[in-house]
Hints:
This protein is an alpha+beta fold and 409 residues long. It is 33% helix and 19% strand. The protein has two domains: 5-245, 3-Layer(aba) Sandwich (Peroxisomal Thiolase, Chain A, domain 1); 258-406, 3-Layer(aba) Sandwich (Peroxisomal Thiolase, Chain A, domain 1). It has helices spanning 20-29, 64-67, 72-88, 111-122, 131-135, 139-148, 163-176, 194-202, 240-245, 274-287, 305-319, 332-335, 342-356; strands at 5-14, 17-18, 35-36, 49-50, 100-106, 182-189, 231-239, 252-261, 296-298, 327-329, 358-359, 382-383, 388-395, 399-406.
Amino acid sequence: MSRKVVITGMGAITPFGCGVDKFWEGLKKGEAAIGPITKYDTTDCKVKIAAEVRDFEVTRYMDVKVAKRMEGFAQFAVAAATEAVEQAGLNMEEEDPYRVGVIVSSGIGSMQAHEREQVRLANGKKIAPLYIPMMIANMASANIAIKYGMRGKNTCIVTACATGSHSIGDAFKAVKYGEADVMVAGGCEAAVCKSGVAGFTALTALSTNEDCKTASRPFDKDRDGFVIGEGSGVLILEEEEHAKARGAKILAEVVGYGATCDAFHITSPAEDGSGAGEAMKIAMAEAGIGPSEVQYINAHGTSTHHNDLFETRAMKYAFGKDAYNLSINSSKSMVGHLLGGAGGVELIACVKAIEDSFVHVTAGSKESEGELDLDYTFKSPKTRDITYAMSNSLGFGGHNASLIVKKYV
Length: 409
């Protein structure tokens, strides 16, 4: 027997600042939160810009001793979860801890820990005792559970850039089919470091444009790669009657989730868009809706040549002629690509779009080309009533995830 799943809390740490309000205000303003990299010297580096989280005061969310036992990705996750739990008004003293779970995942874990400890090793020094537990990706979920005493289902899903959306999708299923009453779900990443940026640069995946306003330009004819970002987006997913019983404010309903694999290439999406397109179809089928009922898609929209072209084909594959009635945008145009953290913040953008009847601009993008002939919300935002919003995530390895949220009435 399936149950209705609603969203009762949201938290975000993004390049716009700390909190959902700052994230949404930044998206509505339509200016990119991208700037010169400050975390290391880029003098000899090809890529010199990123979307860094600035003004993050970790002691707002945890004491110094606890913070020292966490790497950046986990700190961001705990901070975002703290905001989400507080908004939801979730009191663990009143909950069965085994009915509250966590799936907040990172696609990489800590590359900084690798960098730091490999230097120590090469110089004949001892590795730090907590190197492994600070580096591994599951520590985001673990530290959230430890902070709140959440003893239910706790996992970490690693599917590259689809990590956050798959985490939310699996949490949705856990609540829908009775494994949990409440799930804390989302993604996080903090890979703006020399090895992280160098790795994506070697793949020719990053933009080499140093104009911070136009470097990330999804679906634009002049796109030349993505801008790496960092942060975390976390949502509280809850069974509807459970939420009502404790008087929680319901923000939206999660109604569909599709997950597929292209089984095509380790970095490129399937060229015909069939893999991602099928994920969208599966999500719509679970939601019990047709293509004409979705108004808005927050696209994966990375600003790479292959992603934007093949995702456009995927949307046409899934929606047919109705693809031309969609309002589409990419939050990555302003906050960069948060990798494992992208799915969480982008679903939050979907919920806020529903709340405010607002589709933010795809900043930095001016003109599309050829097959890229859908409405990508270039140049200016728009006002539109939204009942169903979809968020797409496509990860290296061909991992596809589509989530659908519905206006709650």
